[in-house]
Amino acid sequence: MAELNLLEAINRALDEAMAADDRVYVIGEDVGVRGGVFRVTDGLHAKYGEKRVIDAPLAESIIIGSSIGAALYGMRPVAEIQFADFIFPAFNQIISEAARMRYRSNNAWEVPMVIRTPYGGGIHGALYHSQSIEAFFTHIPGLKVVAPSTPYDAKALLLASIADPDPVLFLEHKKCYRLIKGFVPDEAYTVPIGVADVAREGSDVSVITYGLMRHYAVEAAEMLAAEDISVEVIDLRTLRPLDRETVLASVRKTNKVLVLYEDNLFGGYGAEVAAIIAQDAFEHLDGPVQRLAGLDIPAMPYSAPLENEFLPTPEKIANTLRDLVNY
Amino acid sequence: MKQERDQAQLIEMFRLMALARALDERMWQLNRQGKAPFVISCQGHEAAQVGAAMALRPKQDWIVPYYRDLAMMLAIGVTPREVMLGLLAKADDPSSGGRQMPAHYSHRALNIVSHSSPTGTQVPHAVGIAMAAQMRGDDVVAWTSFGEGTSSQGDVHEAMNLAGVMKLPVIFFCENNGYAISVPQRKQMGVENVSDRAQGYGFPGVTVDGTNVLEVYEAMTAAVERARQGHGPTLIEAKCVRLTAHSSDDNDRTYRSADDLKAMKTRDPIHSYEAYLRSEEILDDAKIASIRDEIKAQVNDATIFAEKAPLPDPMTVQRYVYAE
């Protein structure tokens, strides 16, 4: 049992996967000698060599496209896109190719690959180092999208993603990388893809969330506990496939729900969660399905007061929950 | 003995080219009869594809094709029956079980990789296959094809750049027929030859007459040898003719002059190869008639077989989104 931060846990998972299976390799920008701009692949180049830890040219589409080819051949590529904001040149490869390969070949071909990418804001990354990209990708059948928020979940879910026979987009929240620490067992353990976590139990209202917002929701829940309001926090951990049952069970228990996400509100991932709750738990609701999310502006601005205004904060979350409880 | 074997290979090249043409023509007939909603043709590209295929080792090398590669498919081992199952979108179509449009070829057992319709996306896959083969130390060459229009795509540039960096065993095969649907090459690029670009990626580029099967075979043999010896990629540009409209939904008379179309017909690769084989006294009327009879029987058999084959069960529409 060791206390690790999120990025150290991810590093451990990569190391373990590469040690266990020589089909696993890492490719991305600066992942080699430098060990990644966030140091997530630190030490792997020295340990496994440049053939398995590949510094790619600065071109996202070939990072993904070549990984698809290698996966078709039988390898297990783990591609890194340096910032989620830079994934769009590879969008076509991900949605037209990786996600559809199994379906379009009637199960003849499969693409067992992982795309790791740091996303999210609150780190003064401005418009192009802060974005949440999950809505674009959770829309696509054939892809799995995983977004762990704790070191414990991150390590196990990355190993599960590498072992998965389908393409997985693995989202790593940048602000969580060093901020979030937790105990990670030395021995093997598993967290399956597609299973949400009850991060905090409560009885008055549910928060359905993921990523950095899980931690903000828990902070808000602690504030409200002092006011005798009991908040349940569900950390989805996997966005697609969605663990509907855990979400609906929580709503049936508390009868009130806030869907919380950092991405722009309109058409965000939480809109789908809200729609599912409205349709499948309607008779259990004692208030409107509430959403709190990033503002509907093009992206997160740089200057601190502007950035803070964009993001949901524990205070804003607590205020929204108070209103909902009093509805 | 060697000469006999060579003769047999020369005749086999002719047979494959003629088979591709006959099958292609039958597909258009089925389209005009309303039995096949869509056809996209290889007519005029047969020499380029068969010349390329004969330099590769089926089932060992990997084929990452595009939609015009019917003759390549037949040369690697896809059967006329399998092609027709795809055309008619039948359940047993090996490419996709009727899920994709026709000519989106795939055949797992033959290492022919499934491709999509956005152009150029397959080229990075070939690079990844070559990268994997290099990592594993396997004796494998990856071959990928695309038109000259597709050579404008960023994916093609990114793929060639990485292949040059890593000296990968991959062959980039551009089938340049001068038109990207309606847009002529002069509006597509500022260079005369697509192969001129290879220099910018650090590997050789050659342009060959894509209507001359033997010239293509020779260039491919050199490229395959280079790849197998670990010297890296080659870009081969085969200048072909497109003897049909872009597809069954296109009318090329709206953008190609009658003179152009007529001139194109004089460059039919099958006519010129047949004339060559006659002049070398490898084929004569009787041998050609026998080959054509055999082909006709094969095309008829494939058509009847595919027409009788079952369509996909609608209850399967949700299968294979993820591993089952």
Describe this entry's structure for a reader.
- The complex is a heterodimer of chains A (327) and B (324).
- With 327 residues, chain A is of the alpha/beta class.
- Chain A has two domains: 2-184, Thiamin diphosphate (ThDP)-binding fold, Pyr/PP domains (Rossmann fold, 3-Layer(aba) Sandwich), CATH 3.40.50.970; 197-325, Rossmann fold.
- Chain A is 39% helix and 20% strand.
- Chain A has helices spanning 6-20, 44-48, 60-73, 91-98, 101-104, 134-138, 151-163, 174-179, 212-225, 244-254, 269-280, 304-310, 314-325, and strands spanning 2-5, 24-28, 53-55, 76-80, 114-119, 144-146, 168-173, 181-184, 197-200, 205-209, 231-235, 238-240, 257-264, 290-294.
- In chain A, helix 1 (6-20) runs parallel beside helix 7 and helix 3 packs parallel to helix 4.
- The longest helix of chain A is centred in the N-terminal third of the chain and has 15 residues, at 6-20.
- Chain A is globular.
- By secondary structure, chain B is α/β, with parallel strands linked by helices.
- Chain B has a single domain (2-313), classed as Rossmann fold (3-Layer(aba) Sandwich), CATH 3.40.50.
- In chain B, strands 1-2-3-7-6 form a five-stranded parallel β-sheet, sandwiched between helices. A two-stranded antiparallel sheet of chain B has the order 4-5.
- In chain B, strand 4 and strand 5 form a beta hairpin.
- In chain B, helix 1 (2-32) runs antiparallel to helix 9, helix 2 (46-53) runs parallel beside helix 3 and helix 5 (122-136) packs parallel to helix 6 (154-166).
- Chain B starts with a helix and ends in a 16-residue tail after the last helix.
- The relative contact order of chain B is 0.16.
- The chains are: A alpha/beta (327), B alpha/beta (324).
- The interface between A and B is large, with 43 and 43 residues.
